[in-house]
Design a protein that fits this description.
A: 7-stranded mixed sheet; 0% helix; 50% strand; B: mainly beta; 6-stranded mixed sheet; 4-stranded antiparallel sheet
């Protein structure tokens, strides 16, 4: 019962480098989300997916891309990292029941530093 | 647009004191859900409570209690007889019932609670 697993947990990048964060859930959840957490900003939604093969933009999508090729995985990509993308990234998932009622299950977070 | 305001950035209390964390929200939806999450120093986000917009009954769970008042758009969280283990950042959040049913959560900026032994 791993829940939501994020890899890697920590990463340091140089400006302009690319990387992918992987989120994997083993709960057969339909919905998956990527948030970023910054000091004094709370959590802000980057992208989300309502099912395999679908993605949608959240509040702060610029500079990120996502893919949901498999139901259990939701990838967050940075094509050309910028210092402004230094943050802690959280993945979350939930099942497909009445929207609004569900509780999100969060991963442990991935701390990304862009130099 | 949905918005959640947690005006208290940081609060410090001495152990065994009671403390209330404030949450004020804005939404045009008539049906919505409110949540509280705890983020301890280890960093993970822990679900505490969910409340729907049609249920204004206060709820108590051990030392935790929640006061939901639609008239003032507030969903405040009280910890009674605080303990050091309560030290964490607490987030209030509001669900967005958009057409996709994505249940996007809008988070407040969080309140950092420090309980001093």
């Amino acid at each position: 019962n791993a829940g939501v697993t994020q890899t890697p947990k920590f990463r340091v990048l140089k400006t302009g480098q690319s990387m992918t964060l992987l989120c994997a859930q083993d709960m057969n959840h339909e919905y998956m989300y990527w948030y970023r957490q910054d000091p004094g900003m709370g959590l802000r939604l980057i992208h989300y997916s309502v099912g395999e093969g679908t993605t949608a933009k959240g509040e702060v999508p610029d500079g990120y891309n996502v893919s949901r090729l498999k139901k259990q995985n939701f990838l967050l990509g940075l094509e050309s990292a910028a210092p402004s993308q230094t943050s802690v990234y959280f993945c979350a998932s939930r099942g497909q029941t009445y929207s609004g009622a569900n509780v999100l299950t969060f991963g442990a977070g991935s701390r990304l530093t862009v130099l | 647009a949905q918005k959640v305001t947690q005006a208290q950035t940081e609060i410090s209390v001495v152990e065994k004191e009671d403390v209330t964390l404030d949450c004020v929200y804005e939404t045009r939806d008539t049906t919505y859900y409110l949540f509280w999450y705890k983020q301890p120093p280890s960093g993970e986000l822990v679900f505490l409570i969910r409340r729907n917009s049609f249920d204004e009954q206060n709820e108590i769970s051990g030392r935790y209690s929640w006061n939901f008042q639609k008239s003032t758009s507030s969903f405040n969280f009280t910890i009674t007889a605080s303990q050091v283990v309560d030290s964490a950042v607490y987030f209030c959040a509001l669900s967005d019932l958009d057409q996709t049913g994505a249940n996007n959560l809008f988070f407040g900026t969080g309140t950092r609670l420090t309980v001093i032994p």
